[in-house]
Please model this.
Amino acid sequence: MPTRLREVDLVIVGLGWTGGILAKELSEAGMRVVALERGGMRSTNPDFAIPLIRDELKYAVRNALMQNPARDTLTFRHSPTEPSLPMRQLGSFLPGEGLGGAGVHWNGVTWRWTGIDHAARSYYEERNGKSFIPADMPIQDWPMTYAELEPYYDKFERTAGVSGKAGNIRGAKQPGGNFFEQARDRDYPLPPLEPSYSQTLFNDATAQMGYHPFPRPCANASRAYTNPDGSRLGACVYCGHCERFGCEANAKGSPHITVIPKAMAQPTFELRTHSWVTKVMLDSTKKKAIGVAYTDVSTGQEYEQPAAIVALCAYAINNVHLMLLSGIGTPYDATTQKGIVGKNYCYQPGGGGVTLFFEDKIFNPFMATGAFGIAIDDFHANDQFDRAAMGALGGATITVGQSNGRPIGYRPVPAGTPRWGAEWKKATAKWYLRAMNIGVTASNMPNRYNAYDLDPTYKNVFGQPLLRLTYNFLENDKKVIAYVGQKAAEIARGLKPTSMTGPGALGEYNIVPYQSTHNTGGAIMGTSPGNSALNKYLQSWDVPNVFVVGASAFPHNSAYNPTGPVGALAYWTADAIKKRYRQRPGLMT
Amino acid sequence: MSEQPNRRDFLKTVGTVGASGIAAAVGADAAEAQTRPAAAGPSSPVAVSHAYTFLTAPEAAFIEAAVDRLIPADDLTPGGTDCGVAIFIDRQLAGAWGSGDRTYMQGPWQKGVPTQGYQSPLTPAEFFRAGIAAANAYCRQTLQKEFDRLTADQQIKVLQDMEQGRITFEGVSAQEFFNLLLATTMQGFFADPVYGGNRDKVAWKMIGFPGVVAIYSEHIKTYRNKKYDVEPKSILDLS
Model:
């Protein structure tokens, strides 16, 4: 028998960035908050201390900070006609587990999304005409404008200690920043990091070609920083062990050193780790949540935690899974196109990048940070970029980062080199220091068949159905990669490398090699129950005392990384609960 | 080219006791060194055990031969076995990863397409074991000898055929086994020496990776287009 606990005002499922932000904001507002985190406790010291944190095998290859697929994973198929099989090992994306979640092991790229992203359907209809949007591409506008979200983007940038250079402050273009960004109220809290050699080459070459290079905004602190809450971040040391690792210098904006300790200082907040939520409990009307059921996975004891509000703040994939397991909203059926929960899953196509090899240059790829980079946005945020020539919606950023020169994972050799043996060895020894990458990261538009539902066969460790993912890269994605990949290749040729590989063509989606942990959609936000699972405050239309916070709310995926708007939306939702919902519970309009 | 002198020959000369016991007792390094082609050795002898805990003697013979072909001895580094890669693989197979602690092991099992990923009902360690047995069975059938008894050229040909999917094994995908073998070999060669491979940081020295200290706040600027020459430091060095 589960133990029934005393009711609280808010129960939070998952304590990463979004859960941490809600926990801090709402416990400080006097609400009684319990956070349930299915992983363990973590702190920078001792968990991320040198030298043990510099273990590429443990953290980057064996995924020590990630969700364990032996206990819970998803199944995958490319289309409804293919048998769906479990993702038995992690690969393509890496959901985090444990205090801080993916906010601990992320790289730190922190964009504000473009005006086009915030108004996707309106923009394309107006600029390219309704017929430019394929019939099977259910894109839609965000329910809030960029301008409405601007103060919340700003708040997240200041919390996370983002280093960058503004390109547009209240309409005034700023030299050196992103020429195409939306107006911001003020600059980033920290100046950009020092660029790598490869980034200086890219910066000069793209400027000469008439593009608009700028430092990519990143939550790697360029200098020691105290955020508005009094949380202290150290300066980034360019150690090259960022993504998939925790930061020993506290230089990566992470919830376990910012919002979570602030929540934990509140007497009204309680954290329970090893607490795996299996279900949101609904009352007999199915219109109201009464709390959550969870298991302490360190003892096996089952509990029920009643709460006036339930906030799903797990990884985007797990938020959708919990909704489907709990019967919140109508599951989406791709065949009939009825229902909504599971719809508009999107990911992030890459593969248009180029690797350049130079006999006469040394790049020291191990001197690296998670997120610093020089980018151009001319083929993405640029609203004058002619998508008709590309024949596709969306676009891609072109970037030189330098984030992961660790030797198990990063060993560039020219095309045609064998993967092993004497020739491979000579090439590896020669080119490791002498190669640089130009990356192409594309947006991803939804398709009616790219969606989640519950798997009919496979179960997790609790005997619950796994989530089933149906997904493939489609025509629109292939065109974007082909078009922008050629632009990247032109830039590369201008740098006159000894040789170069790429750009490759985008093939079928492969769940094995790592691509990005940018899984979006499934519990999308919108303007009505007909087009969305959540309203503009990320509140379930069907069960209004459930909020679902995270990239699961995005109706499509940008070419940008998701964490900027994820953080902004968490502050936005916390604000709506604090200022409006608490006074008058019910569906907010 | 003549047959490769290897662990199997060494074992023959001392009897049929388990490889681990013998290696530990009489010092496999010294005995094997006499029968191996000269290779650039580590600058200082490293006291790392050659004793296997998972691989049986014939399995160890296969792995040693394979990693010496994948990472051949040359003027850059010693061969895979002398770099500790076989020991690394043994430790990984004996440990949590080998026993599938981060692998979803529930059925039912179907083959799927390669882009759906690993679908074997075997743990990674069991998969390795089955792969070695299947590769040896193939070699016996087609070349009348087990893999480790083939000439180096024959071994290279078999590995290439596995890699390219030109040959099939009984019960195990030759290509999938090759890919796992190659990935694990590279992990052993390039991982921190604390795991038994990359002895004396030979792989890091080969490419110019400075290891785990990694404080580059100033260097990011001062070492633009300039080689950063330092003695690499490993977790082992700092512990």
User: Anything to note?
Assistant: Confidence is low (pLDDT under 50) at residues 10-47 of chain B.
